[in-house]
Design goal:
The chain is α+β, with helices and mostly antiparallel strands. It has 2 domains: 1-393, no CATH class; 402-531, Topoisomerase I, Chain A, domain 4 (Orthogonal Bundle). Helix content is 36%, strand content 14%. The protein contains 15 helices and 15 strands. It has helices spanning 28-33, 46-64, 70-78, 80-93, 150-163, 204-210, 251-255, 300-306, 348-358, 396-399, 401-431, 440-461, 470-495, 498-502, 513-527, and strands at 14-18, 23-26, 38-41, 169-170, 182-183, 196-200, 260-267, 270-278, 296-298, 311-313, 344-345, 366-376, 383-394, 504-506, 509-511. Strands 2-1-3 form a 3-stranded antiparallel beta sheet. Helix 2 crosses helix 4 (80-93), helix 11 (401-431) packs parallel to helix 13 (470-495) and helix 11 packs antiparallel against helix 15 (513-527). The chain is globular.
């Protein structure tokens, strides 16, 4: 290597944690060779770790030749050093294409990318934790964004291809889509359009293997001879990729999708600027066979628009914990009433995990599901909120319909109990004289309920087992929810205004603390029946709510 090189195969740039918690930077070669002693990929943001994990999965798919079948997959898992040697040989074959500063084929970039004015943007266009146009909630100002190391720039480059927001970009000379010197929006990077979910293991090697799918072996994922990463194809230029026309060739293509055309600008001391232009557009409709790391939801508007059954990626909701979205992860238990079409489809990676369990290639009882993503602002042109959540679930949840339905029932009863607490809080506020239109009391109480049950639910979920008494498990959980929500209800009474005890007429009915409590008890008896004796407290109509 010379000082003008920064080859990702050899130079440390990926931030990882050792199994003991020590952070360090490693090269691509090291990341595979030392994966058994590595806990996970980290970075400036969790989304960086996901983008790099997808890059490593693409490399592993290509280096392993698929893998071709379950036997090959099992052999790889049992002998990771052999896997690492195979990856090293693969990386040697394409070594030059991983050089971030190569004069003609720089990694994930276009060497001669330029605008008509030869302008170069500042690093705030590349670094996701410096909000473009709103830099008031970041510590990365001044010198912090004037220059970064090539190692950090590599991380942000991979991140930008995966998550860059939509919006107008620099107009690249030679791009036929440019009008008036501007590259008009084509949407966020692909990972920004999905709600990414992957399985994590006790080590990086285990994580890679659990997410490395054998096409056709229980999962309907698409690949083939043309499904190649950018470093195995003719280098891209400033124009849209002529080889795909916006249609991905398979899972490797999607893992490494070039949503932007980029040129990093810098010197031996680091990167000081970037040319960032539009790349290849990828639409989200019905990409089920090429994107295995997201769930899918049936879309009636899209189905009507395209006149065929259409699914869209199920993106993350930053206001909902991952466990509240279990119906999209274990969807074999839930059907939509719309023309008999499933409302949700599982991420293919979870179908893959179920297949591994069926073949007894995965024997552990519990696995961790990790969700990472962004929500974007208006026109998807800015980062709004980061989603980073994980939940430990029994593998039986994914393979046993009875266990899966028990988990869904528990989520449903929990949400209904939280809603009852919200109604109670609102009724107390109405009794004290609050406006009929006020929803803040309900929302605050519901949020308090979810916060209070979050830890206990996650713990309870790990106790589910295919051989256990599912009804007894549900009874135990409903009793725990009842205890928690009743305690929160007592807190609501304590903070109620004095006027609420006298009450007032709301929509023709008298509402006070006592009546609200009666409605609250009746509501909990209905939504948590297993925690109540048969026939206990019939549901009464509630006050205006």
């Amino acid at each position: 290597m010379t000082s003008a090189d920064f080859n990702l195969v050899d130079r440390p740039w990926i931030t990882v944690l050792g199994v003991g918690g020590q952070a360090r930077e490693v090269s691509l070669r090291q990341s595979f060779a030392e994966a058994e002693g590595t806990s996970e990929i980290v970075g400036e943001l969790p989304t960086q770790g996901l983008a790099i994990l997808r890059l490593m999965l693409a490399i592993l798919h290509r280096a392993s030749g698929g893998p071709a079948d379950l036997g090959r997959w099992s052999g790889m898992r049992q002998s990771w050093p052999d896997v690492a040697r195979g990856v090293e040989a693969y990386l040697r074959r394409f070594h030059d294409r991983f050089d971030l500063r190569h004069p003609s084929v720089p990694f994930f970039q276009v060497a001669d990318l330029r605008t008509a004015s030869d302008g170069v943007s500042g690093l705030e266009k590349l670094i996701a934790d410096v909000p473009n146009g709103a830099p008031f909630q970041t510590t990365r100002l001044g010198r912090g964004i004037e220059r970064i190391s090539w190692a950090e720039a590599a991380r942000w480059l991979v991140h930008a291809q995966a998550f860059d927001p939509s919006g107008i970009r620099s107009g690249a000379v030679g791009d036929p889509r440019v009008r008036g010197g501007k590259g008009y929006p084509i949407g966020p990077g692909w990972c920004g359009q999905i709600g990414a979910v992957h399985v994590t293991g006790d080590s990086l090697a285990e994580t890679l293997m659990l997410n490395l799918m054998v096409p056709g072996a229980g999962v309907d994922v698409e690949t083939g001879p043309a499904d190649l990463p950018p470093w195995e194809r003719v280098p891209l230029d400033q124009r849209p990729d002529p080889g795909n026309g916006g249609e991905p060739r398979g899972i490797v293509d999607v893992y490494t999708w070039q949503a932007r055309r980029v040129r990093l600008v810098g010197d031996d001391d680091g990167v000081t600027g970037v040319v960032l232009a539009q790349g290849d557009k990828l639409t989200p409709q019905n990409r089920i066979r090429v994107e295995p790391l997201t769930g899918w939801r049936y879309s009636e508007p899209q189905t009507k628009k395209f006149r065929q059954t259409t699914y869209m990626p199920r993106v993350h909701d930053p206001e909902r914990a991952l466990w509240r979205g279990l119906n999209g992860l274990i969807s074999q238990t839930e059907q939509s009433s719309v023309a008999g079409v499933r409302r949700y489809l599982q991420p293919a990676v979870l179908l893959w995990l179920a297949r591994l369990r069926h073949e007894e290639l995965v024997t552990q009882r519990l696995v961790r599901l990790h969700a990472v993503g962004y929500t974007y602002g208006p026109q998807q042109s800015t980062f709004a909120e980061l989603v980073d959540d994980s939940v430990v679930v029994p593998v039986e949840l994914l393979v046993d319909a009875i266990v899966g339905q028990a988990a869904l029932d528990a989520v449903d009863s929990t949400e209904r109990a939280a809603s009852e607490l919200g109604r109670f809080a609102r009724n107390l506020a109405l009794a004290a004289g609050a406006s009929d239109q006020s929803e803040g009391y309900r929302n605050r109480a519901r949020a308090a309920a979810y916060a209070a049950v979050d830890g206990p639910f996650r713990a309870w979920l790990t106790t589910l087992d295919g051989g256990a008494d599912v009804r007894q498990a549900l009874t135990s959980w409903e009793s725990e929810v009842l205890r928690i929500v009743r305690a929160l209800g007592r807190d609501e009474v304590e903070r109620a205004a004095t006027a609420a005890w006298r009450g007032r007429s709301v929509s023709g009915r008298h509402v006070d603390v006592g009546q609200s409590e009666a409605w609250f008890r009746a509501g909990l008896a209905k939504v948590l029946p297993l925690a109540h004796a048969p026939g206990e407290v019939a549901r009464e109509p509630e006050a205006a709510s």
